[in-house]
């Protein structure tokens, strides 16, 4: 078999082929330029081999005993070690046949003898070896660079540094990860051995071989004296500890010691370290004394392949190192399994009166995010830290825990809210604090990332409140890890691509367009992969640009977008009402390409909805490609992939797809991810956050996720859209209510943000409370029951609520079909104030759930809309505008009719009329338009006068927000 040669910009790379029928690891490493001052690096990969090579050569002599007997002893030990490693390896592969332990050797020079001796051992066990050859005079930086690469490679389970002693600097040794240090030479592993903790560290292979010989010598050595002559460093320290731990006495001496002769003559065993020419005269050694020499060398003599006594001990050392590689792989495999939680909750000391949210947040010091991650079973390589208190979690976790059963799935929804909100986020956080910190049940909160629009507008942030919030709340509410910015950039790249493409098509010939879209590079034209995809969709099965006919060229280069049918708008994460309708293209450089368009708020972007519904990076990329941005003049949908921009969108979104890990005030974990506009999109946190959390909490744990606005909006979309996309099925719905909102639905006066509450909401009024319970609360419970899910009502208690009002709500809620109804005091008390809710949820989740969808996707679009309007909102019927009817006909023609429905309507009423509270009846639901988010995967009818760009009130929240220039503390956020 000939060698394969891989060339790169920096030089050449040689990889040794595997033997026929064996498996090559497939690893590759950057090489140094051949002939460069620093030398070159050669990577050799050998299959089914192990690293027997060592920076120490081991020889032994047992006084007058023959070398033949010595060789038989070492052969016996070798067979034992190899057999033990092989059995461990086979047991490991029975659990996971794909496991293939791999040892990487970093060495100075190109000595192949080292690889040969390793191959003989590894073939017996079934390991792979990769050999990285640096120049003999390689620098510390070059060694560290290679070690760092091997540290991060999950396929490598052990690293052997076969380097001159001068190269094994403290920096080099301690760059190597301790769990891959199969020579046991890092400070951490040496310290573990000295302390006696070998559960994670490794015994140096040479030390194991020496100890084996000492312990199995024909004369028992317990209580005898072992003299170590010469040598320093981790090997000598480790060997001394192991000798003493085995019941022997270890003494150290130097070659220059005047008493060396007498020490040797009194010793029962002598271990020599140093150069080859350093030795003790035979006359000094008593008969029967074991003399073992450990010689530092980077050379392999020609006889080392022969199974002599001297080389046999070399094989024994290699076998022990191989054993360490198998152990490392076994530990790695164990770490890949589900890890029980060891959550250390943070203590709360609630104050009365309750301070502001930001004061509470700052009074609690969050755990370092790496500590939180370790407590909940995340691996270090699954975390990407963004500062001290938040981190992205990699999706590889889903692959690692794919066999782990999911935990219980709880949805927090609400009754129809007042404009002030009813506290679903605080209930969500209070519930998980109670479950984890007090009931000691694993639980995860999955929340949406707040938009800057409400934060600086009227509502404020979404971190929860009081003693039930996510911390640090400033980071939660401001920028976080930049996901919304990534969505804004991606969305507006699509908008820019649309207008630029329309301009170029309007001002260039087919030939000019083709020459620019498929440019000649070094005299050769090639289609990019995304252009080949477009050709396939057009039915053109050609890959040579020169082979296209003029008609095919025209079809390929012209999207021919109809300006009046472009559905894609720009976005900004600010409530800016004056961007609702704008005119673009007015500069003279745009050559008269003027059209009307508008802005949405960033969280209303289809890309946000895609982020929330995707279940992998590949799924997100495919959804981005399918996004329809408009229609051609011939009536065909034009997609982001047609524009050639979908690959770039995936690049912009590659980090945003990872959920962000944060924590509550009591140190329980939270995933913050996505935040679709709840009354225009589905309004739920991401599928990925929920799936990751469900694996992490374990079979008996809980994932509590939140739906936007009332149950008629967020919950209905959660069930009919999100659950279809994820395949997940909820166990319980927690329905949040407040006395304040119930009084409004029972006939109380209007509530306005920023205005003082009318006295009806401050004074006890049982009549209004009962009216709200028998109307809106009853209806929202019934909506949940439409999907076959049990309901627990959580009454978010305010300080103005009386005990009689609280008792009345809980009583009527149970009469209306709730499994339970409990008051919640988390705002003032934290998790302890939600213990009753946690216990009710735990009980309800243990009961069977008969989940079902409200409609089948095969139903016609109109029938699906009518089903939601009648069964959920209580409408008599629907009324379609001519524009809506035309859109539905178009979507049916394009094959989009089987998508689920995402109703865009006001959140302030079950109907389309915001001022109609309680349970409106006798109304017809007007559908003024129907749009489609093909990439996200739903049709969204617009009910009434829905707007996708909120406006600022007269006095926005930003009046109170400021920064102290000295302390850099934010003030007025809450």
What's the layout of helices and strands?
Blueprint lengths: L3 E5 L2 E5 L26 E5 L9 E7 L4 H29 L6 E7 L4 H13 L2 E7 L5 H13 L5 E5 L7 H6 L11 H9 L9 H11 L9 E5 L4 H12 L3 E5 L6 H7 L2 E5 L16 E7 L12 H28 L20 H7 L5 H7 L7 E3 L5 E3 L2 H5 L7 E7 L9 H15 L4 E5 L4 H5 L7 E2 L2 E4 L1 H5 L5 H25 L2 H8 L2 E2 L2 E2 L3 H9 L12 H8 L3 E6 L3 E3 L9 E3 L10 E3 L1 E3 L4 H8 L3 H10 L1 E5 L4 E3 H4 L2 H8 L6 E5 L4 E4 L14 H11 L4 E5 L4 H16 L5 E6 L1 H7 L20 H21 L4 E6 L6 H13 L4 E5 L1 H4 L5 H11 L15 H13 L3 E4 L1 H12 L30 E10 L4 E6 L18 E2 L6 E2 L3
Parallel strand pairs: 5-6, 5-7, 8-9, 8-10, 10-11, 14-29, 14-30, 15-28, 15-29, 21-24, 30-31, 31-32, 33-34
Antiparallel strand pairs: 1-2, 3-6, 4-11, 12-13, 13-27, 16-17, 17-27, 18-19, 20-25, 22-23, 25-26, 27-28, 34-35, 36-37
Overview of the molecule:
The longest helix is centred in the N-terminal third of the chain and has 29 residues, at 67-95. Helix 6 (205-215) packs across helix 9. It contains 32 helices and 37 strands. With 974 residues, the chain is of the alpha/beta class. The N and C termini lie far apart (71 Å). A hairpin with a 5-residue loop joins strand 12 (383-385) and strand 13. The strands form 10 sheets. Strands 12, 13, 14, 15, 16, 17, 27, 28, 29, 30, 31 and 32 form a 12-stranded mixed sheet that branches.
């Amino acid at each position: 078999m000939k060698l394969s040669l891989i060339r790169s910009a920096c030089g050449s790379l040689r990889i040794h082929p595997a033997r026929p029928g064996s498996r090559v690891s497939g690893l590759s490493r950057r090489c140094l330029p051949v002939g460069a001052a620093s030398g070159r690096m050669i990577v050799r990969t050998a299959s089914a081999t192990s690293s027997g090579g060592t920076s120490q050569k081991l020889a032994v002599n047992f006084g007058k005993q023959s070398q033949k007997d010595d060789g038989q002893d070492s052969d016996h030990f070798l067979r034992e070690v190899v057999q033990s490693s092989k059995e461990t390896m086979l047991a490991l592969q029975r659990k996971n046949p794909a496991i293939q332990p791999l040892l990487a050797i970093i060495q100075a020079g190109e000595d192949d003898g080292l690889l040969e001796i390793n191959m003989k051992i590894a073939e017996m066990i079934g390991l792979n070896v990769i050999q990285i050859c640096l120049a003999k005079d390689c620098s510390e930086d070059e060694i560290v660079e290679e070690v760092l690469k091997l540290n991060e490679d999950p396929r490598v389970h052990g690293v052997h540094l076969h380097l001159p002693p001068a190269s094994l600097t403290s920096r080099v040794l301690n760059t190597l990860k301790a769990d891959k240090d199969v020579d046991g030479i890092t400070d951490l592993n040496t310290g573990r051995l000295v302390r006696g903790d070998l559960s994670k560290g490794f015994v140096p292979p040479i030390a194991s071989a020496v100890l084996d010989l000492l312990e199995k010598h024909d004369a028992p050595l317990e209580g005898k004296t072992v003299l170590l002559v010469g040598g320093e460093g981790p090997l000598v320290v480790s060997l001394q500890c192991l000798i003493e731990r085995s019941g022997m006495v270890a003494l150290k001496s130097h070659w220059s010691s005047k008493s060396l002769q007498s020490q040797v003559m009194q010793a029962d065993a002598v271990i020599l370290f140093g150069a080859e020419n350093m030795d003790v005269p035979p006359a000094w050694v008593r008969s029967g004394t074991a003399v073992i020499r450990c010689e530092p060398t980077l050379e392999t003599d020609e006889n080392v392949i022969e199974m002599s006594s001297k080389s046999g001990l070399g094989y024994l050392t290699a076998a022990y190192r191989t054993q360490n590689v198998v152990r490392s792989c076994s530990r790695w495999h164990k770490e890949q399994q589900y890890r029980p939680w060891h959550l250390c909750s943070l203590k709360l000391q609630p104050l009365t009166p309750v301070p502001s949210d930001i004061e509470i947040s700052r009074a609690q010091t969050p755990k370092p995010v790496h500590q939180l991650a370790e407590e909940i079973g995340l691996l270090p390589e699954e975390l990407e830290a963004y500062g001290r208190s938040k981190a992205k979690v990699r999706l590889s976790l889903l692959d690692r825990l794919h066999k782990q059963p999911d935990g219980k799935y709880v949805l927090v929804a609400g009754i129809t809210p007042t404009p002030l909100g009813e506290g679903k986020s605080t209930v969500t956080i209070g519930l998980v604090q109670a479950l984890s910190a007090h009931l000691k049940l694993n639980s995860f909160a999955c929340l949406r990332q707040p938009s800057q629009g409400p934060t600086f507008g009227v509502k404020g942030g979404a971190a929860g409140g009081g003693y039930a919030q996510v911390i640090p709340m400033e980071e939660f509410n401001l920028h976080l890890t930049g996901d919304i910015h990534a969505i804004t950039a991606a969305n507006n790249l699509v908008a820019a691509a649309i207008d630029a493409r329309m301009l170029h098509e309007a001002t260039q010939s087919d030939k000019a367009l083709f020459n620019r879209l498929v440019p000649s590079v070094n005299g050769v034209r090639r289609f990019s992969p995304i252009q080949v995809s477009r050709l396939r969709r057009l039915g053109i099965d050609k890959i040579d640009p020169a082979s296209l006919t003029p008609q095919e060229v025209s079809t390929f280069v012209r999207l021919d977008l109809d300006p009046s049918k472009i559905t894609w708008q720009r976005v900004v994460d600010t409530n800016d009402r004056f961007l609702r309708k704008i005119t673009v293209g007015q500069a003279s450089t745009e050559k008269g390409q003027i059209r009307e368009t508008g802005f949405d708020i960033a969280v209303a972007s289809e890309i946000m909805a895609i982020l929330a519904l995707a279940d992998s990076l590949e799924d997100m990329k495919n959804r981005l490609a399918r996004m329809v941005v408009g229609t051609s003049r011939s009536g065909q949908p034009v997609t982001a992939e047609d524009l050639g921009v979908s690959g770039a969108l995936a690049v912009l979104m590659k980090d945003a797809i990872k959920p962000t890990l944060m924590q509550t005030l009591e140190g329980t974990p939270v995933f913050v991810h996505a935040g679709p506009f709840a009354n225009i999109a589905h309004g739920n946190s991401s599928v990925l956050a929920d799936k990751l959390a469900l694996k992490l909490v374990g079979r008996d744990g809980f994932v509590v996720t939140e739906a936007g606005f009332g149950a008629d909006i967020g919950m209905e979309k959660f069930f009919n859209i999100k659950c279809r996309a994820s395949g997940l099925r909820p166990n319980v719905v927690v329905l949040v209510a407040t006395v304040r909102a119930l009084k409004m639905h029972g006939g109380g006066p209007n509530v306005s943000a920023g205005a003082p509450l009318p006295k009806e909401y401050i004074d006890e009024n049982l009549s209004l409370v009962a009216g709200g319970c028998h109307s809106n609360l009853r209806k929202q419970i019934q909506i949940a029951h439409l999907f076959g899910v049990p309901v627990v009502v959580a009454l978010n208690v305010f300080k103005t609520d009386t005990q009689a009002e609280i008792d009345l709500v809980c009583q009527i809620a149970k009469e209306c079909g709730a499994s339970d109804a409990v008051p919640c005091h988390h705002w003032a008390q934290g998790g302890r104030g939600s213990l009753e809710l946690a216990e009710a949820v735990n009980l309800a989740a243990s009961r069977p759930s008969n989940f079902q969808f409200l409609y089948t996707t095969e139903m016609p679009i109109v029938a699906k809309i009518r089903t939601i309007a009648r069964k959920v909102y209580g409408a008599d019927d629907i009324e379609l505008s001519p524009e809506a009817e035309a859109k539905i006909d178009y979507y049916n023609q394009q094959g989009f009719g089987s998508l689920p429905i995402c109703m865009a309507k006001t959140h302030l009423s079950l109907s389309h009329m915001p001022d109609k509270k309680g349970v409106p009846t006798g109304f017809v639901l007007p559908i003024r338009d129907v749009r489609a988010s093909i990439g996200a995967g739903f049709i969204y009818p617009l009910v009434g006068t829905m707007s996708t760009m909120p406006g600022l009130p007269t006095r926005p929240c930003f009046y109170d927000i400021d920064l102290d220039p000295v302390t850099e503390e934010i003030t007025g956020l809450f």
